[in-house]
Amino acid sequence: MSEIGYKHYMFVDGDLPGNGEDPELPGHEALMITNRHDRDAHIRVNLYFEDREPVEGLHITVPARRVVCHRTDLPFGEEGCRIPFGQYSLELESDIPVCASFGRLDRRHDLGYYVTGYCAV
């Protein structure tokens, strides 16, 4: 299998949005990770904030040949960390190459979904 993906990602534009006016379609951000390999991917997650100390060493396991999606407005990672509203950055370090994307459904103004930029190191 060809190597697709990276072991290190940095999503620097985290900004957990409010819910908006429709409770059935709340604003949120989501981290999607795909593992194409025949073994599980073990990912360490670090969160960085503008006004508090980082939260480091959270864990996500992505089973072999699967995708996982984590909404950041819900308990996050295997530890169930609650990410506060406001600006943050999310760093991923995986033991094998994975493909990762980070998106936002923003209900603060008009309905909008977009994928934020990332830096694969």
Could you tell me the CATH topology label: Hypothetical Protein Tm1070, Chain: A
Oligomeric nature of the chains = single chain
User: What summary fits the major beta sheet?
Assistant: 8 strands, antiparallel
The low-confidence parts are none
What is the number of E strands? 8
Task: Report on this structure.
By secondary structure, the protein is mainly β. The protein has a single domain, classed as TM1070-like (Hypothetical Protein Tm1070, Chain: A). It contains no helices and eight strands. The chain has strands spanning 6-16, 28-35, 41-49, 55-62, 66-71, 86-106, 112-115, 119-120. Strands 1, 2, 3, 4, 5, 6, 7 and 8 form an eight-stranded antiparallel sheet that branches. The two termini are 21 Å apart.
Write the topology of this structure.
Elements: E1 6-16, E2 28-35, E3 41-49, E4 55-62, E5 66-71, E6 86-106, E7 112-115, E8 119-120
Antiparallel strand pairs: 1-6, 1-8, 2-5, 2-6, 3-4, 3-6, 6-7
In short:
With 121 residues, the chain is an all-beta fold. It has one domain: TM1070-like (Hypothetical Protein Tm1070, Chain: A, Sandwich). The chain is built from no helices and eight strands.
Please name the defining characteristics of this protein.
121 residues; mainly beta; Hypothetical Protein Tm1070, Chain: A; 8-stranded antiparallel beta sheet; globular
